[in-house]
Amino acid sequence: MIDDLLSRWTDKKTEDLKSLEKEWLGKDGHLKRAFTLLRDLPASEKPSFAKSLNELKLEVEEFFRSKKSEIKRLPPIDFSIPGISPDLGALHPITLVEQRISKLLTPFGFQSLLGPELETEYNCFDSLNIPKHHPARDMQDTFYCEDLPNAQVLRTHTSTVQARALASGKLPIKVASFGKVYRNETEDASHQAMFHQFDLIWVEEGLKLAHLTGLIESIVKGLFGQERKIRFVPKFYPYTEPSIGPQIDCTLCGGKGCPACGGAGWVTVGGAGMVHRNVLLEFKYDPNKVSGFAFGLGTARLASQFSGIPKLKMLYDSDLRILRRRVS
């Protein structure tokens, strides 16, 4: 009987104990009803049955007395004490970098666009002056998809958004885009098979290379500080001519050389150049009247620089020690 009471009283709450006590010892409780059965028993059986009922009543009463004492010994709850709140989420270091770049671009009037990660070969390569024999189109460098009628590759750069913007035919074109890109890379301290990029394109009449370098310097120094050293080195990109690569002195080693910068002391933070005339012609623009420039960078690489993370892979490992780092 007591075992039954113990099994039913599991939550150790005062309200539950009171309810159980009323069920057993109340006016209409189990024991009260049991005592009413005495009047219907033969006289010879009444003494032993009454004795058993009294013993049970004493046992049940003792059970409730002990449980009430046990509840009183439990530490009281002070509802005025602040509770322990769960950890709040935080923005990923890459997201923080993207927000910072967007803020820097706001005065220039760029429109932010998103593009699909599954793309056509045309938007990813053909429209951007990347011919069939280009190594980027080799399966060793690009992830190709099968049995998808409207998408053949995982985009290798966010420049695919440039192609979509150019296809609109409306000038001026001032578009910025952020997103994931995919390349069949061997992963190391500075390369990933999936990473994040930022891209912009500006097309209208009268744009020169000086406009591009001025914009890049504004963005890079806005990101890394006015004291940051910056240089431009020659580059080759099929969709720009001339092409340049902005570099900054490595923030992790101060230009001395480390694994993150490959020992060079400089980190290439992007690729840029004037939009190639073949690209303009592809989208029916007259390169003798219209010019433009494009600029892109790896936001994952920037986030690792800002957060003091030596390997890009650490940004994607879901390690809270990394994700809680502030982007300085």
Description:
The protein has 328 residues and is α+β, with helices and mostly antiparallel strands. It folds into two domains: 2-73; 93-323, Bira Bifunctional Protein, Domain 2 (BirA Bifunctional Protein, domain 2). Helices cover 35% and strands 19% of the residues. The chain is built from eleven helices and ten strands. The chain has helices at residues 2-8, 14-25, 30-36, 46-73, 93-105, 121-124, 159-166, 209-224, 277-282, 299-307, 320-323; strands at 111-113, 118-119, 153-154, 173-182, 194-204, 230-237, 240-249, 266-268, 271-275, 291-298. The strands form two sheets. Strands 1, 4, 5, 6, 7, 8, 9 and 10 form an eight-stranded mixed sheet that branches. A hairpin with a 2-residue loop joins strand 6 (230-237) and strand 7. Helix 5 (93-105) crosses helix 10 (299-307). The chain is elongated, with a radius of gyration of 37 Å.
Briefly, what is this?
The chain has helices at residues 2-8, 14-25, 30-36, 46-73, 93-105, 121-124, 159-166, 209-224, 277-282, 299-307, 320-323, and strands at 111-113, 118-119, 153-154, 173-182, 194-204, 230-237, 240-249, 266-268, 271-275, 291-298. With 328 residues, the protein is of the alpha+beta class.
Low-confidence stretches: none
Q: Which percent range describes the beta-strand content?
A: 15-25%
Output the CATH class name of the largest domain: Alpha Beta
Total number of helices? 11
How far is the N terminus from the C terminus?
A: 68 Å
Number of strands: 10
Share of helical residues? 25-40%
Sheet with the most strands, sense and barrel status: 8 strands, mixed
Give the quaternary arrangement of the chains.
Answer: single chain
Number of domains: 2
Radius of gyration: 37 Å
Question: Do you know the CATH architecture of the largest domain?
Answer: 2-Layer Sandwich
Overall, the morphology is elongated
Under CATH, the topology of the largest domain can be stated as BirA Bifunctional Protein, domain 2
What is the arithmetic mean of pLDDT?
83
Which secondary-structure class do the elements indicate?
Answer: alpha+beta
What is the assigned CATH homologous superfamily of the largest domain?
A: Bira Bifunctional Protein, Domain 2
Question: H/E order of the elements?
Answer: HHHHHEEHEHEEHEEEEHEHH
